[in-house]
Amino acid sequence: MDERSALRRLAAALPAAGDDAAVVDGLVVTTDMLHEATDFPAGTTRYTAGWRSVGASLSDVAAMGADATAAVAAYAAPSLVEEELDAFVEGAVDVCDAVGAEYVGGDLDTGTEFTVASTALGETDAPVRRSGAEPGNVVCVTGTVGRTAAALRAFEADDVDRGNDLFRFPPRVAAGQALAPHATAMMDSSDGLARSLHQLAEASEVGFDVSWDRIPVHDAVEEYATDAADRKRMATGVGEDFELVCALPRASLGDARAASPVPLSAIGTVTEASEGVRMDGEPLADEGYTHE
Amino acid sequence: MDERSALRRLAAALPAAGDDAAVVDGLVVTTDMLHEATDFPAGTTRYTAGWRSVGASLSDVAAMGADATAAVAAYAAPSLVEEELDAFVEGAVDVCDAVGAEYVGGDLDTGTEFTVASTALGETDAPVRRSGAEPGNVVCVTGTVGRTAAALRAFEADDVDRGNDLFRFPPRVAAGQALAPHATAMMDSSDGLARSLHQLAEASEVGFDVSWDRIPVHDAVEEYATDAADRKRMATGVGEDFELVCALPRASLGDARAASPVPLSAIGTVTEASEGVRMDGEPLADEGYTHE
């Protein structure tokens, strides 16, 4: 059973689960676990790990269109080193500060692998779900995609500072709140743009047709991509990007853009489910970040 | 740096941390990470793991005297097996049901070691801290101690059903709320009774003098203890018991007992800090559950 099948199973058993975050009486809660082997390439600092792990949960709060209020993290490592722990907490505090949330501590433990479990809390009266996109809507993405794909190349190339810098993404909490009144469906691109579109399509029972030349690609992708095909794969098929992907009525696009504190790119349209997920008219593979 | 030093460091950096749970605007949040090697002996079922890991976080909510509202868990294992995951979720849901909280899902991941990170949420207008105990107060404990020590012996003896049964402790959420109006200080005994008394003593700047013959010991300890010294160690020095330890004014003891849905034993008195932590007049070693 791969992670997506398992998550689907979990969602079926639990009515409040199955979106980026659960919402109980207006309280938003989401949790994520990250591991050294799969999530923190060699060279990732503990400061970056603190930022990124807590940021991943804040991004899930953002994806509900909610205000982020607080976060906690549980930290396990083979040994607890003072400087590493301080750096981790500093990163966690800084990413919370960046979105106006409070980092309120956590748990510590020894474990065989460096592992972080972060939980973020938020508040919203009107959560935006993955379901709700309608044919004719515009599909949009905040910021630029491919940032994590570029970061992974930077780490591979031993360009550690650049890798860490790219890894510390800004969670789109303010953008999520600005888009919430307009969006019919929203999620974050933590599994990559292509996979996110497939997940939105499944939850909303629609299709998508996006245009490659409208997809905003991070500058760093250009630096590391080996050719045009590689550039496309880095931008759409790697994931862990933490931008917001949303659908909204075409008439709202102007207002949504005006409200959003980050650039909002209209990358295509919502189609009927029978059309599937397409880029430039061709089927877009459901590729991205999946733990097998 | 052992876990306690690290937690102290974390608490110093974060004003909201340093107790069983953080409290932000009346919202209680706490997170815990548990690992197969240290927390789930061979024979622990996934149902029990779900119950126990989520229960540990609910116990932290209880220790603040708060109502438990919701919980999430992140689950990592070398492979995601359907039956194991179903059993885990069932245990998590059942322990939440037992205290009137809602289990709202979580995250799934593959990792080298079976690891669970659970987060519980609660609400309270008047959290009970570890600080606040005053000389002359009575020190009390809910239920009975030594349950986990007995469970570990059961697992060692291959009495797996008994071990699992003992491992599925009832989180004292209702008791915590009943005691909150009376308690001057409270925490759960997740590090063992002796260590909990030392932690309360440190936070409240007091001492304790408890009597061994007043400490309520779980029946199963009797079954597995090899002699009188072993019985004492199992009851006070092993930990992970998840009972509540609190201090309250002597005049409130009757009311607190009447309010508590579980037996409340008065095991001694709060003394001056200079007296230290004593049992039957002798220093009680600060022994218990510490990850080195």
Automatic annotation (TrEMBL), chains A, B:
Amino-acid positions noted as binding ATP in the UniProt annotation, renumbered to this chain: G106, D107, R130, S190
Binding site residues for Mg(2+) 2: D32, D60
Residues noted as binding substrate in the record, renumbered to the chain: D39, E240, Y289
Other facts noted in the record for this chain: Reaction mechanism of ThiL seems to utilize a direct, inline transfer of the gamma-phosphate of ATP to TMP rather than a phosphorylated enzyme intermediate.
Domain of life: Archaea
Residues holding Mg(2+) 1: T31, D32, D107
Domain PurM-like N-terminal: 18-123
Family matches, as InterPro entries: PurM-like_C_dom, PurM-like_C_sf, PurM-like_N, PurM-like_N_sf, ThiL-like
Annotated GO MF terms: ATP binding; magnesium ion binding; thiamine-phosphate kinase activity
Signal peptide positions (record): none
Coiled coil segments of this chain: none
Protein family: Belongs to the thiamine-monophosphate kinase family.
PurM-like C-terminal domain segment(s): 134-276
Catalytic reaction list: thiamine phosphate + ATP = thiamine diphosphate + ADP
Residues that bind Mg(2+) 3: D20, D60, D188
Chain positions recorded as Mg(2+) 5 binding sites: D191
Ligand binding (Mg(2+) 4): D20, T30, D60
Region (Disordered): 273-292
HAMAP family cross-referenced by the UniProt entry: TMP_kinase
Keywords assigned: ATP-binding, Kinase, Magnesium, Metal-binding, Nucleotide-binding, Thiamine biosynthesis, Transferase
Functional note: Catalyzes the ATP-dependent phosphorylation of thiamine-monophosphate (TMP) to form thiamine-pyrophosphate (TPP), the active form of vitamin B1.
UniProt name for this protein: Thiamine-monophosphate kinase
Keyword Magnesium: yes
EC code: 2.7.4.16
Pathway in which the depicted protein is active: Cofactor biosynthesis; thiamine diphosphate biosynthesis; thiamine diphosphate from thiamine phosphate: step 1/1
Pfam short name (any one): AIRS_C
